[in-house]
Design goal:
Layout: H1 6-9, H2 12-26, E1 30-34, H3 51-57, H4 60-80, E2 84-87, E3 93-101, E4 104-114, H5 121-131, H6 138-146, H7 153-192, H8 197-207, H9 211-214, H10 218-238, H11 245-251, H12 256-267, H13 271-287, H14 294-301, H15 306-317, H16 321-328
Antiparallel strand pairs: 1-4, 2-3, 3-4
Helix pairs in contact: 3-6, 7-8, 10-12, 11-12, 13-14, 13-15
C-alpha cells in the first residue's frame, strides 16, 4: 500500500482532537501540512494565530517568503529524519516535524510563531531591516512583535517531543492499516483452504511486528543501520547511568516499541541484553585495576547493588568478579 495523506489516515474528528489536545497542553497553535510545500498553513486554533505573522502575511511578498521558509524547513526535517527548529525570515521560531512512511514524506506537523528570548527594541531593529521591503505598517508590526509569546528552552524541548510523538502516532496508525489489509487478503486465501486456516492465523500473529521491517527499501535499510549505530553510541556513552529503553528511543527519535523491534532485528540483542553486555565488558576492564574493589566497579559500570552486579557478572562470564580478577592477574 502506498503512503497516504494525513487526512486519509486519520478521521477529521481525530485530527481535531489531536489539535485540541496539543493546544490545551502547550497553549500553542499547530498545523498538519500535507506534502512538501508550506503553502497556506492552516493553524489551529485560527483565532490564536500570531498577529505578527498575520501582518507579515498581509502582503503577497511576505506570504511567499513564509511559504518558501516552510517548504525549506519541511525538506530539511525530512532529509535529517528528525524535528527541525528554525528561525523564520521575520525572526520568530518555528518547529517542523516530518511524517515519513515507507521512506516517503507525506507531510509535517508545524508549530511555533514564538520567541525564546524577551523581545526588545534592539532586536526589533533587525526584524525591521529584514521586512522593510514588504511595505507594511512598521508600528503595528513592532506592537505585534512585543506581544509574541515567549517560552523557555525547556518548554520548547517538551513541545518538540510532543509533536514527535504525535507524528509517530500517525505513522503507527498507517502501519496498522497496512497490517489490517494484509490480514484481510490472507483471510481470503484461508477461506479457500480451511485446513491451513489456523496455521495461517498463527503465522500472521508472529509476523505482524516485523512485516513492515522486512519490506523496507535499501535506502531505508541504510537509514535504519545509521539509527542503530547512533543508538549503540548513546548506550555505550551512557551505560554507567540509569538507562532505559525509552531514553534511547527518544535519543534516536523513535517510539520505544518500534525501536525495540528495530534494535533486536539489526543486532540480535534486546536493548537490555546489549546494555548488560557493555556494562560487563567495562567491568572486566575495571577489575584489572587492583585499586578498585567490587563495589566500586559495580558503581562505575551502572549497578547500584554490588550483589546484583556479581550475579549478572557470574552469569555472563562464568566467573565471579573476584575469581575473574585472580585469573586475569595470573
Amino acid at each position: 500500500m502506498d503512503p497516504k495523506s494525513i487526512e486519509e489516515i486519520l478521521s477529521k474528528k481525530l485530527l481535531l482532537e489531536l489539535r485540541r489536545l496539543f493546544y490545551k497542553t502547550t497553549g500553542m497553535t499547530i498545523s498538519f501540512i500535507i506534502g512538501r510545500s508550506g503553502g497556506d498553513v492552516d493553524f489551529f486554533p485560527k483565532s490564536k494565530r500570531s498577529r505578527f505573522c498575520k501582518i507579515i502575511h498581509s502582503t503577497q511578498k511576505g506570504k511567499a517568503r513564509c511559504s518558501l521558509a516552510d517548504t525549506e524547513s519541511i525538506n530539511t526535517a525530512f532529509k535529517n529524519r528528525k524535528p527541525h527548529i528554525h528561525q523564520c525570515h521575520a525572526g520568530l521560531i518555528d518547529i517542523y516535524v516530518p511524517i515519513i512512511m515507507k521512506n516517503k514524506l507525506i507531510g509535517a506537523l508545524a508549530s511555533g510563531q514564538i520567541l525564546t528570548n524577551k523581545p526588545t527594541d534592539k532586536k526589533f531593529l533587525s526584524i525591521k531591516k529584514k521586512t522593510q521591503d514588504l511595505k507594511i505598517d512598521i508600528n503595528k508590526l513592532k506592537d505585534a512583535y512585543k506581544k509574541v509569546e515567549v517560552i523557555s528552552r525547556e518548554k520548547l524541548d517538551i513541545v518538540v517531543k510532543l509533536m514527535f510523538f504525535m507524528a509517530n502516532f500517525i505513522v503507527e496508525k498507517e502501519s496498522l492499516i497496512i497490517l489490517q489489509n494484509k490480514l484481510i487478503q490472507q483471510q481470503k486465501k484461508i477461506e479457500e483452504a480451511n485446513r491451513e486456516r489456523e496455521l495461517w492465523k498463527k503465522e500472521l500473529r508472529k509476523a505482524m511486528p516485523f512485516i513492515e521491517m522486512q519490506s523496507v527499501s535499501a535506502q531505508e535499510h541504510s537509514h535504519h543501520e545509521k539509527i542503530i549505530v547512533e543508538a549503540k553510541k548513546f548506550i555505550e556513552k551512557n551505560s554507567a547511568k540509569p538507562l532505559n529503553l525509552k531514553d534511547v528511543a527518544e535519543a534516536v527519535y523513535l517510539s520505544p516499541n518500534y525501536f525495540s523491534n528495530l534494535f533486536k532485528h539489526y543486532t540480535n540483542y534486546t536493548f537490555h541484553e546489549y546494555l548488560t553486555k557493555i556494562r560487563i565488558e567495562n567491568a572486566k576492564k575495571f577489575l584489572s585495576r587492583l585499586a578498585l574493589n567490587v563495589s566500586q566497579v559495580s558503581n562505575l559500570v551502572g549497578y547500584d547493588d554490588p550483589n546484583h552486579f556479581s550475579k549478572v557478572f557470574t552469569k555472563i562470564t562464568g566467573y565471579s568478579p573476584q575469581k575473574y580478577r585472580k585469573i586475569f592477574l595470573k
